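Forwarding the complex inputs:
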Amino acid sequence: MLKIENLTKNFGKITALNNISLEINSGEFFGLLGPNGAGKTTLMNHLIGFLKADSGTITYNDELVKFGDKQIKRKIGYVPQEIALYQELTAYQNLKIFGSLFKLSKKELSINIDKALELVQLLDRKNSAVKEFSGGMKRRLNLAVSILQSPEVLLCDEPTVGVDPQSRNAIFEMLQQLNKQGITIIYTTHYMEEAERLCNKLAIIDNGQIVASGSLTDLLNTLDRKKTIKIIKTAETESLYDKLCEIAAVNVFDFKYEIIQNNEFQKDSQLYTYFEKIGLSSNLIEVSSASLEDVFLHLTGRRIRD
Amino acid sequence: MSNIFQMFKKDLIRFMNDKTAMMLTFIVPIVLIIIFGNIFGGNNTSRGKAHVIFVNKSNSEIAKLIEAKLDSSSNIQLIKKYRVEGTDSILSFTEDKAMEYVRTGKHAAAVVFPSDFLLDTSATMNIKFYYDPRNEIESSIIQGGIQQTIFSQLPEIFPALLARQANNFLGETKANGFRNDMANMISSYFNIPKDSILKFASTKITSGLLKQTSSDSTKNSFIENLINFDSEQLVGKDLKNPQVTRIVGGWAMMFLLFTLTGIATSLFEEKQEGTLRRLLCMPVTRTEILLSKYLFSLSTGIIQLMVLFVFSWAIFDVDIFTNFTNLLIVIIISASAAVSFGMIITSHATSLSQANGVATLLILVMSAVGGAWFPTFLFPDWLQVVAKFTLTYWSVEAFQQIMWRQAELSAITLNLLILIAVTVIFNLYAINRFNKGKIF
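Prediction (whole assembly, two chains):
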């Protein structure tokens, strides 16, 4: 459906996208995961024809996506990172202004506006000025504006930045609902939990390059181990830090140590025996399944929020 | 104290990093001081001369003497010839041609020394002064300059007038004897060569014999009677409020530039808010976005100017309806040019604050130099040339022609063509940059 081949974009001496290739199929909830500045938004900007690539191509249903392509813009909705709304206007006025650019009939536009407002649960506030909305409501309206033309693909560029957990969940549910209706969703984020929860296919981008792509299972399979071991930081464990470092690499976080297992401790049992030997209480040990965070660390050698 | 100093330092660093604030704080006032200094400062030699048409129909030696003095005046530039339109031939001004030039606004004033400039039987010099008080200060300067020149020549003119009166009353033979005796006496008492005294006292008036003109009863003194300054206002006689009519166009243009540049640069605000990017992600072209902004700015500009002119009519009785169609055309074209100015600023600025800073600087300078605040003839010659490179100059001139002398469009064709050309060039350039994604 959407095919990106060898896409490269430079801004002066900075390479924002470096020979990127990806394929996104119809109906997928595709996650583009990467830290800030990895090139996610730049890639989005190419997908909607906002930026011109230095080299490489993007095709949508075998048609070339060109810079400023009007046709592609009718098929692709875009939820920007920022709240791109006219604050002094009402929700309805915003929807009408943006919706009218899709050349829908008056009736069709009216129906689509109501549907969008219903989806984002703002129908009863349609005549309120946007500036009176809470952050979460603005985010929801931001989403509503992007689906007015009933797009085939919806690009969501970190649409939950700065949103409270309740509104974030609401937005997730709305996006999942849209995906169930058949809309292909491409979702960029640097929150691993969001990607894990929402996306059935993912690509990890770092420094303008795709470092891995596939389903969540595919990505987790790239890890040698499927578990992570963490030790809660206390006075006791702090005194054991040097001993922990003797048997494995240790990542230090604010409240925890993460044990990076090496070949010497291929088996968990060996590790636990060592913990017992050095006097580490078992209630300070946390074992969890490996996550995308671990995949990112494994692939790039650093954490996503470093 | 340390805290105060640290916070002071913080403000200083922030200020130094804010190029717009620096520009508005230092550059704008310095530029305006330079302009005002050149206009009103003490260096009068740098001020341009007031151009005035001059026609001398008199054969009088005194008329020639005054003409020579006016020629060398530092305030006045006499224009004696004109080029016949569409040809290379250059002719001397006649009185009628001079009046036509003043009426059509090609020059602000004309001075005519008529054939009866100085009657043999009179001590009064008749001068005709045709003027267009569109620029009241300019007319006053010209009148004052001419009077000053004539009065400064009184020591030379006065003996000649006396000699002529003596000839009239005593006869030439007796008058010559009288002058001879006087010369002997002055020479002996003041030790001045007799020949020089005689030459001074025998200045001949060569114009024909003419009768004594009736003196104006309001002129009581002899000095006042020396010059009969017959002024005739050729333009704007019927205007009810000439003062406001003179300035309304200039001020309207300045505020128009501020308003429209503000709207054009609002693209930066839309960029910051993200709405511009959202628009660019919708099925609209960059040209459509820019043209919609242009159309809105133009409409706002036209309405703003209309409101200002209607207000000046309602409150100050400025006549806007006699030549309303032409006024509307000038309003539309001026507004178009002002929007294109905003577009060109937007197409080159990198941020909203930079756009606002540059726009403020340019608008104030263009208003000062282009004649929105005071007439350009007050400027030094070099600044008068610079004025012609501003939008304000061509627009203000067009407004004055339309409102002051109810001129036809043909009288402001050049103004309109220049404003249209600027509009087209600026907009094409801005659209080109916007389409290539060089702006946003």
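Chain A has a mean pLDDT of 88.
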